[in-house]
Amino acid sequence: MAVRNASTGEERFARVKVPPVLPRFVAMPDGERFVPLEQVIAAHLGSLFPGMEILTHHPFRVTRDADIELSDESEDLLAAMESVLRQRSRFGLEIRLEVDATMPSPVLELLCRELELSASDVYVIDGPLDLGGLWDIYALLRPELKYASWAGRTPPRLAAEDADFFRALHAGDIFVHHPYDSFANTVEAFTAQAAADPNVLAIKQTLYRTGGDEEGIVRSLVKAAQDGKQVVALVELKARFDEQANIERARILEEAGVHVVYGFVGLKTHGKTLLVVRQEPDGLRRYCHLGTGNYNPKTATTYEDVGVLSADPELGADLTELFNHLTGYSHQADYRRIIVAPTQLRPAFNDLIAGQAHPGGRITMKMNSLVDQATIDALYAASTAGAEIDLVVRGICCARPGLRGVSERIRVRSILGRYLEHSRIFRFGEPGAAVYLIGSADLMPRNLDRRVEVALRITDPRIQSRLDEILAVNLADDVLAWTLAPDGIWNKAPTVEGTDTHARLQELALARTASVD
Asked: Which of 113, 146, 224, 396 could form a disulfide linkage to 229, CB 3.0–4.6 angstroms apart?
């Protein structure tokens, strides 16, 4: 803002820093109307600067670098992370400047000069800044303005009131698709049963984003440790924006007797895995969960993710060896059903894409982001060789579909609606005769080269059929779908049949469980 001294006529530039504890939108006394905080501040600038004339005022927002850099020589990762967080809050490097459309050039130039930003770092927003605050308005009790409520369903084999996960998994793997399937009645309930079962000897789990909630899975791990079970939690302290929450959860777990591991200094552990070891009459048996989403009960109701609960001996052996590696007791192994980054996943994807690089080849992939240039080049080569390729990419996509002689057989779409599309599903070949993978990794350099990621080969025909169903619905959508053009522009898909991915998958979930109700 620009102010002028009423006595001397001297003009100065002033900044009002808004503390994060204030609400983004201020509720009026009737509780039905809201005013952006910057308008409230602007209306009272005279009180903040008595004796000064307010010439102009404009909101702006600075984004700072949130990446964490830890020294390879850090002996205490927890202490090092806490120190870095304190430094970031004070000295984080400015990387983006958002301004409103009315800001005059002299003020913008001053901001860029003082923040050492270039014109390419400036984003002009014709509207309110920081719309994340709209969640406060969404929380209003106005059901007529919201989607109809949806309660995740419980898979039929787990629907009995006294469902025994261990007995159910003896009959085969169970596929879960959140939020269409209940996270609370599947993954959370499985962990709770394992924690309470006197025959369970050990529970080992990776935790990337816990949601800052001491209920659910974290509570189950605490109970298991207090009851004398061996509990190992690999807590990723470097999960962006959740660092402080994860530090707090790690302390709670440690105080309960959980063996907390913080992973590797140079890598983020992003894989979503859970291993339970149980003593049974015929010996030890291992039960597992591997999925695409965080063990977070809050996001599990709004993020779309898939996972598998299993008692498969090969998968149990794989996760045992993986946890031994992650806790520092062994070198990474050659696994049977899982593929692990950063050493195995990139070459595996290269081989699977190359295997479809021929006339009649078929590749279908669903992910959050496609950025890795080597993977994009491999997809271009497969398209040129004759493969038909469908990509469902929720966020960033650096591939250009439909380019003559390069990507003519590649199609890219994005599904944007009620739920955030978060699952990663990869199918190489025609449905029913393909290689199927699910996992935690997007096709980005950070996932393939700088993270511990886990992908699971799906071999059960029943689960393969469920994945085919999900992909088919995504590819048929003409209500929520956007398609990417060769020039990089996203266009809304024209609605013809009226297929809405989220509504259709809710219908299918209801149909699968109708006989149980």
From this structure: 224
Is the separation of the CB atoms in 300 and 179 below 8 Å? yes
The per-residue pLDDT for range 417-435, each reduced to its tens digit, is 999 999 999 999 999 899 9
Number of other residues whose CB lies within 10 A of the CB of residue 250: 24
> Are the C-beta atoms of residues 441 and 425 closer than 8 Å to each other?
no
Domain 156-331 has CATH 3.40.50.1820: no
User: Is residue 22 helix, strand or coil?
Assistant: coil
* Tokens 């900044």 found at: 15
Asked if 381 and 387 touch (Cβ cutoff 8 Å), the reply is no
Q: Model confidence over 165-174: pLDDT tens digits?
A: 999 999 999 9
Q: Where in the chain are all domains bearing CATH 3.30.870.10? A: 156-331, 340-513
Coil, strand or helix: which one is 310? strand
Listed residue (83, 93, 74, 441) closest to 266, CA to CA: 74
Say if pTM beats, i.e. exceeds, 0.90. no
User: For residue 271, which of 207, 175, 350, 217 has the smallest C-alpha distance?
Assistant: 207
392 CB neighbour count, 10 Å cutoff: 25
Q: 307 near 292, Cβ under 8 Å?
A: yes
CATH level 3 topology of 340-513: Endonuclease; Chain A (3.30.870)
pLDDT of residue 73: 46
Mean pLDDT along residues 490-499: 97
Pairing of strands 2-5, 481-484: unpaired
Cβ pair 291, 458 in contact under 8 A: no
d(CA 443, CA 420): 18
For 185-221, what is each residue's pLDDT tens digit?
999 999 999 999 999 999 999 987 665 554 688 899 9
Instruction: Supply 309's token pair.
Output: 């609960």
Active site residues: 270
Residue 72 banded pLDDT, cuts 50, 70, 90 = very low
Q: Any bridge partners for residue 390, and if so which?
A: 364, 411
Per cent of the chain over pLDDT 70 is 90
From 423, 417, 401, 421, select the one nearest 490 (Cα to Cα): 401
Query: Any idea what DSSP says for residue 440?
Result: S
β-partners of residue 178 are 305
Q: How many CB atoms lie within 10 A of CB 41?
A: 18
Give the ranges where 134-288 is alpha helix by DSSP (H): 134-138, 165-170, 189-196, 216-226, 243-255
Q: What is the pLDDT of residues 393-414, one digit of tens each?
A: 999 999 999 999 999 999 999 9
